[in-house]
Amino acid sequence: MKIGFLQSVKWVKKGIWVVILNLFFTFIAGAEVHKDPHKYLENGKLLGYPFKLDATLPPGENFDLLDWYLTLPVDTNKDEKADRVGETFLDKGFVVEPLFYTAEDGGMVFASPNYGATTSKNTKYVRTELREMLRRGNTRIKTQGVNKNNWVFGSMHFSGQKKAGAVDGSLEATVAVNRVSTTGDPKKVGRVIIGQIHAIDDEPIRLYYRKLPQNELGTLYFAHEINGADDIWFNLIGTRSHTAAAPENGIPLGEKFSYKITVVKDQLYVTIIREGHDNITQHVDMSESGYHRSNQYMYFKAGVYNQNNSGDKRDYVQATFYHLENSHDGYDY
Predict the structure, then answer these.
(1) Residue 98: cis peptide before it, omega within 30 degrees of 0
(2) Which residues lie below 8 Å from residue 162, measured CB to CB, with a gap of 6+?
(3) How far apart are CA 298 and CA 300, in angstroms?
(4) How many other CB atoms sit within 10 Å of the CB of residue 29?
(5) Is 21 helix (H, G, I), strand (E, B) or coil?
């Protein structure tokens, strides 16, 4: 069969257009993945403000805590693990001073000593911390696993996304760190984790506040842990060094600031918001971090995870949350 010259030219043109269109759609898809979802955040405007909090109410009536459980640094049932308070108990008004209660200004207070019960034998530090629970009190759904209690990255295979409670997500909070540890190992003093994304064994992000005893101002930084490998560290304000001077733009104890953590597919965005300052946003490409695999499920954590297990037994950390909100694709609460 002979092919005419004009017909050959048409086929060549058609092939070129197919290539061009493929490149165009590939570019668009890539641009969508890396589009900053935090660009809309207004500079210097704290998230959740104005805060509608009532100092006479327990935290569960000022905040939606039905999709969280609480870990405490005590072991009242002597099972050698930190006690947990389930979603429904939090929702109905659980309070235990001085660890978890409502402050005089209506904020939700978390406090944790340097020593106490840990969540497992492999855990070095203690906490008063919320763990996200998308099942919202439905105990027929297991806590762990790729199921309706947890969420997954949008880069996971669609079969895994269908099993999960949600896909991708954001955690936003407005918080004031009231106190940090001041005694013990200099490499551990003053550190506290105030927000996390946790996977099976590793953490795509751990957000730290740190103030050293010799400094008036504190720092903010976070770790991105590669699945099954080491941490990569990112400084947001100041550094994580235990010998550094206070940063000029550091955060003093008691100052309210906001953070927002967002995952879109396998891209991580972390933004810090302070009144009178430009927002700070850090982007991390997690496409090679291994969290898209079919067994990897996620959940947010918020509160105080004390990163000092040394020093005076009376030493402790404390933070007050004024806004806390978690959101996900496919999760309508």
Answers:
(1) yes
(2) none
(3) 7
(4) 9
(5) helix
Residue 225: CA count within 13 A, CB half-sphere = 15
Name the fold adopted by 44-329. Jelly Rolls (2.60.120)
The pTM assigned to this predicted structure is 0.90
pLDDT tens for 122-181 read 899 999 999 999 999 999 999 999 999 999 999 999 999 999 999 999 999 999 999 999
Bridge partners (DSSP) of residue 174 are 258, 323
For 215, the token pair is 């400094």
Q: Kindly report the backbone phi and psi dihedral angles of residue 175, in degrees, each rounded to the nearest multiple of 5, phi listed first.
A: -145, 150
Q: Parallel, antiparallel, or unpaired: how do β-strands 231-237 and 68-71 relate?
A: unpaired
Domain ranges of the chain: 1-35, 44-329
Which residues have C-beta within 8 Å of that of residue 253, sequence separation ≥ 6? Answer: 176, 177, 178, 179, 180, 211, 218
Instruction: State the average pLDDT over residues 216-240.
Output: 97
What pLDDT is recorded for position 121?
A: 83
What is the chain's mean pLDDT, rounded? Answer: 92
* Token pair of 285 as six digits: 């490409």
